[in-house]
Design goal:
The protein has helices at about 20-35, 40-55, 60-70, 70-75, 105, 125-135, 140-155, 155-165, 170-180, 195-200, 200-210, 230-250, 275-295, 310-315, 330-340, 345-355, 360-365, 370-390, 395-405; strands spanning about 5, 15, 55, 80-85, 85-90, 120-125, 185-190, 215-220, 255-260, 300-305, 320-325. The chain is of the alpha/beta class. A six-stranded mixed beta sheet has the order 6-8-9-10-7-11, sandwiched between helices. Strands 2-1-4 form a three-stranded mixed beta sheet. Strands 3-5 form a two-stranded antiparallel ribbon. Helix 1 (about 20-35) crosses helix 2 (about 40-55) and helix 16 (about 345-355) runs parallel beside helix 19 (about 395-405). The longest helix is centred in the C-terminal third of the chain and has 20 residues, at about 275-295. It binds adenosine-5'-diphosphate and magnesium ion (MG).
Length: about 425
């Protein structure tokens, strides 16, 4: 963690900021994302606030120089400390409130997020997440199963209450349920809604329990650069930080999301697998196992596009596995209808579209359309054309683009 040391004009030490640079940056980055700000100005703002809260003032040029110095920290380089020149605020609030940098102890309610381990923290309920969740069509069964499993894993008291009502006691089966590893696996083809579902399920979950739900997204670069011990170290730290965060939440559940988890959990028997990665995987498994005993409201969501690359030990531990596939004819019908509700599609046109994105694409290109091929590629390219020509979007546009567009190659057939 990089400490931010404050000095006077003459270079004399004045103290240091209570939060490490990584924490301030991570916080600012989330803020920038949430409010659509440029990252650089979000960093400047966050640093200025931090410095002023400590009872100092900073000149614009000094602030710009500090952001410059912190570029290395943002890249994930190991930096011990940076120093910055500030002046003491005059007036009654000018007392210096600079403390030693034990962030966790000093500020239990402030996020202890480290940009190196986490790319984002989200809190639910969240209207935008709900919007996305609702727009995921045709996977109601996946939604239902994921929600139920997370409810059982994160709110065991609800299961106990059920048992009391229907058995007059907490039956042994509840204890068996509670002793499972709080791990859910979302696997399958790309562009099939795994990431979106994982990042939005917190909203219905919060709804169901009537409180807040938090999500920490592990930085997929957590794999590190392959230095001996580094990956193990990073995993331990990511879990330790997530657990500390969970403890600070006062009982609100925390979801730990590890997207593209195959990078971390590739098969241990894989010949190409570096010794270092094996150690990392073992550590990851241990940390997941110990979550069972920790008594924290915490669950791990694992996402992978390459299920065959996943170590069986991870699969065995999963309380729930959901497999995501490309949409079938019925699901594509629903998806297309929902994507362009204002366009009158005759039954015949809809059938042709479903065929062009399904069986025909399969025949021509060896794969049918993924969900995102339709929402993120087909619709936009048809729309772009209609817009450019300054005329309405029509079923014919959609059909023409559907016949030309090559779907994402199926897994295993080309990269
Ligand atoms: N069931 C679905 N309904 C509607 N759109 C979907 C669905 N699944 C995926 N999409 C679209 O595909 C895009 C990519 O989804 P994503 O969750 O990133 O896929 P994955 O993580 O499985 O690769 C989403 O932004 C969304 O627009
Ligand atoms: Mg994804």
């Amino acid at each position: 963690m990089a400490r931010i040391l404050l000095t006077g004009k003459a270079g004399n030490a004045l103290g240091e900021l209570p939060r490490a640079a990584e924490d301030v940056l991570a916080h600012a980055e989330n803020h920038a994302r949430a409010h659509n700000l440029a990252k650089r100005s979000a960093f400047q703002l966050a640093l200025r606030q931090e410095i002023e809260a400590a009872g100092f003032r900073i000149a614009d040029a000094e602030l710009a120089a500090l952001v410059e110095k912190l570029e290395a920290v943002r890249r994930g380089d190991k930096v011990e400390s940076v120093s910055v020149s500030v002046s003491v605020t005059d007036g009654p609030t000018g007392s210096r409130r600079v403390t030693r940098p034990t962030v966790e102890r000093d500020m239990p309610n402030k996020p202890v997020l480290n940009a190196k381990f986490f790319e984002a923290e989200r809190t639910y309920p969240d209207a935008r997440a709900r919007g996305w969740y609702d727009r995921l069509v045709g996977i109601d069964e996946h939604k239902r199963r994921l929600l139920l499993e997370l409810e059982l894993l994160l709110y065991p008291e609800r299961l106990s209450a059920w048992s009391q009502t229907h058995h007059g006691q907490v039956i042994h089966a509840c204890a068996i349920m509670a002793s499972r590893a709080p791990l859910v696996l979302l696997e399958g083809d790309v562009g099939c809604g795994k990431t979106v579902l994982a990042e939005t399920i917190g909203d219905p979950l919060a709804d169901l329990a009537g409180g807040k739900v938090h999500l920490l997204k592990v930085n997929t670069q957590v794999r590190g650069t392959g230095m001996v011990g580094e990956m193990t170290d990073l995993i331990v730290q990511a879990f330790t930080q997530a657990e500390a965060r969970a403890d600070a939440l006062g009982g609100a559940p925390l979801l730990l999301l590890i997207d593209e988890a195959d990078a971390l959990a590739a098969k241990r028997v894989d010949q190409h697998m570096h010794h270092e990665d094996k150690a990392g995987l073992n550590t990851l498994l241990q940390r997941i196992d110990s979550l069972r005993l920790g008594g924290r409201r915490m669950a791990v969501l694992f996402i992978t596009n390459r299920p065959d690359a996943l170590d069986p030990a991870v699969r065995r531990r999963a309380a729930l596995q959901l497999t995501f596939r490309r949409p079938d004819d019925e699901q594509r019908t629903e998806l297309i209808r929902q994507a362009v509700p204002e366009i009158e599609l005759s039954a015949k046109q809809l059938r042709e579209l479903v065929l062009a994105t399904g069986a025909e694409a399969e025949k021509k290109f060896g794969a049918s359309y993924t969900w995102s091929d339709i929402t993120d590629r087909l619709i936009p390219s048809a729309l772009r054309e209609a817009y450019t020509a300054r005329r309405p979007l029509t079923a014919a546009d959609l059909l023409q683009h559907a016949r030309d567009l090559e779907p994402t190659p199926a897994m295993g057939k080309g990269e």
